[in-house]
Specification:
four-stranded antiparallel beta sheet; 28 strands; 39% strand
């Protein structure tokens, strides 16, 4: 019998053992370096009861007695709406309200002294309007007020005292204020950078105007942040936000400004916070549903973001998501 195969196996075994030993670690208890976890963006998002009406974008909202009044907007076929819905955070429920006298989208919407105001916006066939409608929850009625200086749409509004400041939009750099106590309009200094589909919010006596774009297509987005001091009636340019975009929403909470969502060339879920004290921006936790053309308001320490489109210029939603910073 030929013993060669047996001798070959005896010679291979030490070799295999040597390879196994060589592949093992000389320090079996040596700690392994784990990759650093990705940074966690601050903030918290919670989905709440969606609006009951049709899915829509380019709506507006205001807060009265702790309730959100969401009004107007447009369907995906560009039809403007006169719809009013009222959200109660205490019961997480929506109820319908009386419709506006006329349908509007891309309007300026604000609540002052317990009443809701809808200014300008697009009506049927995307014609800009100069109308001002006031809704009184006490009597559940709408009434017409003094018209805007000129027809406007896709502008930003912010409230200081009894005045609703209307900035930019299709009127470029224009800046006018409506005083609800006197039912009169005042022309004020223009903002430095003309744009539409921008957003604004007030902190104290200062109005912060952020983002926006210019037409025609392809749109040029802006990251600009400009502040208007209502006491000195002067504008100041501030550090730009990290993500330039139009069609965004804004809200102020605890002395800070939040820029939310927006669009072009994509639909954004980004949320970015600006601190006027440090003049610095930081990224926050993204929205659950990326959207543009939203309405954003602050209620009980939360920023509610309702409606908006999921695709460029379209795909309206009935989303109602609330954000709380860290």
């Amino acid at each position: 019998m030929n013993p060669a195969p047996f001798r070959l196996r005896t010679h291979l075994f030490p070799a295999v053992l040597l390879v196994l030993i060589a592949c093992g670690s000389g320090e079996p208890n040596a700690p392994r370096e784990e990759p650093a976890p990705p940074p966690v963006s601050p903030g918290e998002w919670i989905a709440h009861a969606p609006m009951q009406g049709p899915r829509r974008s380019e709506l507006g909202a205001g807060v009265i007695d702790g309730k959100i009044y969401a009004v107007g907007g447009k369907l995906d076929n560009e039809t403007p709406l006169s719809l009013l819905e009222i959200y109660d955070p205490a019961t997480d429920s929506w109820t319908p309200g009386p419709s506006m006298p006329a349908p509007r989208d891309h309007a300026g919407v604000a609540a002052v002294n317990g009443k809701l105001y809808v200014l300008g916006g697009y009506g049927p066939r995307s014609v800009a309007a100069e109308t001002v409608f006031e809704f009184d929850p006490g009597s559940s009625t709408w009434s017409a007020k003094a018209s805007m200086v000129s027809p406007r749409a896709a502008f930003a509004v912010a409230v200081v005292g009894t005045k609703i400041h209307c900035v930019g939009g299709l009127s470029g750099k224009a800046h006018e204020a409506y005083d609800v106590s006197t039912d009169t309009w005042e022309t004020l200094p223009e903002m430095p950078t003309g744009r539409e589909h921008l957003a604004a919010a007030s902190i104290g006596t200062t109005i912060y105007v952020v983002g926006g774009r210019v037409t025609p297509f392809p749109y040029e987005n802006f990251a600009a942040l400009e502040a208007y001091d209502t006491v000195t009636k002067t504008w100041t340019k501030l550090p730009e936000m990290p993500t330039g975009r139009g069609g965004l929403g804004t809200a102020a909470l605890d002395g800070k400004l939040y820029a939310i969502g927006g669009e072009f060339p994509a639909v954004y879920a980004q949320v970015e916070e600006y601190d006027p004290t440090t003049q610095a921006w930081r990224g926050m936790k993204k929205m659950l549903t990326p959207r543009h053309g939203v309405a954003a308001v602050t209620v009980n320490g939360w920023i509610h973001v309702v409606g908006g489109g999921r695709m460029l210029g379209t795909a309206g939603t009935n989303a109602n998501e609330a954000f709380k910073p860290d």
